[in-house]
Amino acid sequence: MQKLSAEELLAQYSQGKRNFHTVDLSGDNLFQADLTEINLSGSILRRAYLPYGNLSQANLYKTELQDAELGDIQLYQANLSEANLSGANLSRANLRHANLQGANLQRANLQGADLYNADLSNADLRYANLSRANLEKAKLTKAQLAGCNLFRSRLVDLSDAECDRTTISPEGHR
Fold first, then answer.
1. I need a surface site. Which of 112, 118, 142, 173 has the fewest CB within 10 A?
2. Phi, psi at 8, each rounded to 5°
């Protein structure tokens, strides 16, 4: 796996390169980076700093984003299937139409995130914070929601999700 600095990535991206499959960008600062349609599948971005960035339509399949700072990021139509986002901050993120099938979102902060029509099938959302998130038309089939905080989340359909007595409902009940 190739270690790449944020500067090298941005320079190559600005020259038209989009395929950065299996690169290591751990801890890199990509504040406000516009990386639309980038392919970072299989890459490592642990503890990366990407708030206010644009990764719309990006391929982040099986990408490691543990503890990454992704607040206010644009991930519209991004492929995050089987990505590891445990402990990541995705507060106020735009995840409309995103593919999060099988993603690990344990203990992730998704407060106020927009997950309109996102596919969270088989995702692990245990102990994630989804308070005030928009979950209209989000697919939660077999999503694990034990300990998940859904307080004041909007238009959520939990009929196919796996909840337990530790799940906090949109109304604030357990």
1. 173
2. -65, -45
| φ/ψ of residue 135, rounded to 5 | -115, 25
What is the per-residue pLDDT across 138-162, written as a single tens digit (0 to 9) for each? 999 999 999 999 999 988 888 899 9
Burial of 138 (0-12, 13-18, 19+ CB in 10 A): buried
Asked whether 100 and 81 are in contact (CB, 8 A), the reply is yes
- The alpha helices in the chain, defined as continuous H runs, are 6-14
Q: What is the pTM of this model?
A: 0.93
Residue type, 2: Q
CA 101/CA 96 separation, integer angstroms: 14
Question: Does the pLDDT of residue 27 top 80, yes or no?
Answer: yes
